[in-house]
Design goal:
Order of helices and strands: EHHEEEEHHEHEE
Number of domains: 1
Largest sheet: 4 strands, antiparallel
Structural class: alpha+beta
Oligomer: single chain
Number of helices: 5
Shape: flat
Strand order of the largest sheet: 2-3-1-6
Radius of gyration: 19 Å
Length: 201
């Protein structure tokens, strides 16, 4: 990432994370390109929509997103990290609208819209024949089975959270750099490796 400290705004920044439920991440594992693309779009649309709502922030915001597909235990765990300035431009583009100090947008509202947008998008992908299933998910090729699989997901809370604001632009830049330049398994975690096996801590 070629970002420089002067590219960042002198405002408070927030770190928002959107995570897919396990039942959806299984589908994502078999349909990476389609589902990861949908994940990015649903996250961005969620933030843009809620931020633009005059009852919330009433501003046009910007963001930088980074996809993580694996957790630290090296299990499939798709989630998106998003760095967002604490405010945005007024609808007419003439002034800056700042969020309340230490608070960006309501997480429950973000979670519900994210869930709806993602599930609607996933249903469209299935209807268009852009999802494939194999192994223990092969039955999801059937529209009825697919709908039944997603039904419980419409009623559960999806994990969306915002970490405490960063200390300033320098911390945001350092954080982004770590996430965009880090390898999946750093050398200090490797125990051994050969043609067929990798052991790691």
């Amino acid at each position: 990432m070629q970002a420089r400290i002067e590219d960042l705004l002198p405002v408070e920044y927030f770190h928002v994370v959107f995570t897919l439920p396990a039942q959806i991440s299984d589908i994502a594992f078999q349909n990476k390109a389609a589902v990861y693309d949908l994940l990015f779009k649903a996250c961005a649309e969620t933030l843009l929509t809620i931020a633009a709502d005059p009852k919330r922030l009433g501003a046009k915001i910007g963001m930088t997103s980074v996809l993580h597909t694996w957790g630290s235990a090296m299990t499939h765990h798709p989630h998106v990290h998003i760095i967002v300035p604490g405010g945005g431009l007024s609808p007419d583009g003439t002034r800056w609208i700042a969020c309340r100090p230490g608070f960006f947008l309501p997480l429950k509202v973000l979670s519900r819209l994210f869930r709806r947008l993602f599930l609607e998008g996933l249903a469209r992908l299935h209807k268009a024949g852009k999802l494939t299933f194999f192994g223990n998910l092969s039955e999801l090729t059937d529209p009825g089975a697919f709908h039944a699989h997603l039904t419980p997901m419409r009623k559960t809370d999806w994990v969306v959270y915002a970490k405490p604001p960063f200390g300033g632009p320098q911390a945001v830049l350092a954080y982004l750099s770590r996430y965009t330049h880090r390898v999946a398994i750093s050398n200090h975690r490797l125990v051994s490796a050969d043609a067929g096996t990798v052991a790691f801590r």
